[in-house]
Write a structure and sequence with these properties.
GO molecular function: metal ion binding; peptidase activity
Radius of gyration: 21 Å
Structural class: mainly alpha
CATH topology of the largest domain: Alpha-Beta Plaits
Helix content: 40-55%
Number of strands: 2
CATH architecture of the largest domain: 2-Layer Sandwich
Oligomer: single chain
Largest sheet: 2 strands, antiparallel
CATH class of the largest domain: Alpha Beta
Organism: Oesophagostomum dentatum (Nodular worm)
Keywords: Hydrolase, Metal-binding, Protease
Number of helices: 8
Order of helices and strands: HHHHEEHHHH
Protein name: Peptidase M20 dimerisation domain-containing protein
């Protein structure tokens, strides 16, 4: 258990930076055009900090926070299989434990390249640790990242529809959620795919208390209808 905890502690710095060598070298470079998009996005750092109930944020500017959430890879530790997790004291030492973590891929990363970098680094850590215990890193599954072309006709129709329904210029956003079917649709059809959100920032998708506000639901219906009309024209 102590070996595993040590290995997991070597994956990421306290500021969220991934410590795996070479991982940022395979990320698509930040362009001036993209950087300007982040400056225009309506995002309040104080509101965000209060919403996630944190004492502070890992990044100091709005642009850095958004890029960390959207355009750079992130690593999350999810749990330890075989460890004691129930309430109360426990003194039994597990004979085998499995640490589980994921790494979010972003353009231009591929699962194959990331798997090699991660496993090579884990093996190097184990040599450095010098433990007599057995260690076997493995990758379970991976998916290619996707990002849309916000300049094409599909996105422009979405922009016009948003202006018509909400009366505001929409923000171009990314998200770290896993929707692998998006890329599949785009590759199979050869057409542009756009994700057109209708929910609020506090809808907590996939959680126990997932919701959608009545206002957003009704406006979302209008947005979908307006989008189809704009796309047809």
């Amino acid at each position: 258990m102590t070996d595993l905890i040590w290995v997991l502690s070597q994956l990421i710095d306290k500021d969220g930076t991934i410590k795996i060598p070479g991982i940022y070298d395979i990320v698509a470079p930040l362009t001036v055009e993209e950087e300007e998009l982040y400056k225009k996005i309506d995002f309040n750092m104080t509101d965000y900090q209060n919403d996630i109930e944190a004492h502070g944020l890992l990044k100091g500017t709005k642009e850095e926070v958004l890029m960390s959430r959207w355009r750079y890879p992130s690593l999350s530790i999810h749990g330890i299989e075989g460890a004691f997790a129930s309430p109360g004291a426990k003194t039994v030492i597990p004979c085998k434990v499995v640490g589980k973590f994921s790494l979010r891929l972003v353009p231009n990363m591929t699962p194959e390249a990331v798997d090699k970098l991660v496993i090579d680094y884990l093996n190097q850590l184990w040599v450095k640790r010098g433990s007599p215990n057995h260690f076997k890193p493995s990758a379970h599954h991976g998916g290619m990242p996707w990002v849309g072309d916000f300049k094409d006709d599909n996105f422009r129709a979405g922009v016009r529809a948003t202006k018509k329904v909400y009366g505001v210029e929409p923000d171009y956003t990314r998200e770290g959620g896993s929707i692998p079917i998006t890329l599949t649709f785009q590759e199979l059809t050869g057409q542009s795919v756009m994700l057109l959100p209708i929910g609020a920032g506090d809808d907590m998708p996939h959680s126990q208390n997932e919701k959608i506000n009545r206002y957003n639901y009704i406006q979302g219906i209008k947005l979908q209808a307006s989008y189809l009309l704009e796309l047809a024209e």
